[in-house]
Every structure is written in structure tokens, then in C-alpha cells.
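Data availability (excerpt). The following record was deposited with the supplementary files.
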Amino acid sequence: MNKIILLGRLTKAPEIRYSQTNEMKVALFTLAVNRKYVKTGEERQADFINIVAYSKLAEFSEKYLRQGLQICVCGRLQTRNYEDKNGIRRYVTEIIAEELDFADSFKKEDDSILNSDKPVNTQENTNTNTNEEVFPSEDDLPF
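Predicted structure:
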């Protein structure tokens, strides 16, 4: 069985490419996954793991994922090799995503991520929410 489950933060927004053979959308991103143990007197270490998402997951990644977002990735480990332009054999180990789930708790202004059809630019978000619920004072309550 080849099953990987990772919880980590995106180091940058996904890079979108298209496969050469059938023009399938491919999303590439790196997940920073903290190691469980911390040596005393040292900072927590992280592993940077390459993730590849195809087709619908690539579209989801392009639409919703951004730098710093914490996600859970379920997938499989894949190794491959190729020969670069200089004739040197290169080896790659990566995770092929099969499921992606949000693991962050969203702030109120970030709720638009789930309801928007366009990527969210957090610098454009301002706290101008006029739809805040107003509760009546205790004098106005019927009980």
C-alpha cells in the first residue's frame, strides 16, 4: 500500500503547468511539514515536500490555495528519474495528491475564499464588512 498523509503550509502559491501529451492541468507546490520533535535549544525543523496535483485537483489548487495556507494532502509517493540537458541523470521524489483539505481556520474576512470564483488577494481585503449581525440590547429582548 502506498499512502501518504501530510499536514503543512504552502511555501508559495501553486505553479500551474499543462502536460505535454494531453494538455492536462498540473499544479506544483511545496508543502513545509514540521518535524515532530524539537531538540532543546534549537528551532523546529521542517521538511519541504514537493506535491503534484492533476486535473480537478490542479484547478482547485489554482483557485483556492495560496502561500502560508495550512492544508492536508493525501496521496501516494512517486519516484522518477530523467536525463537533464547536460546528460546527467536526475532523480525526483514527490507526492501525487489524491485529496486536498483545508486545515486552517479562516478569519471572517477570509470566508470569501470559499465563496469566490477568483483568487483572493489578502492585501485588497479591508475590514468593511457591513453585514455584521447586530444584537438587540437586553431591554429589547422578550424574555
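Summary of structural features: Residues 116-136 have pLDDT under 50 and may be disordered.
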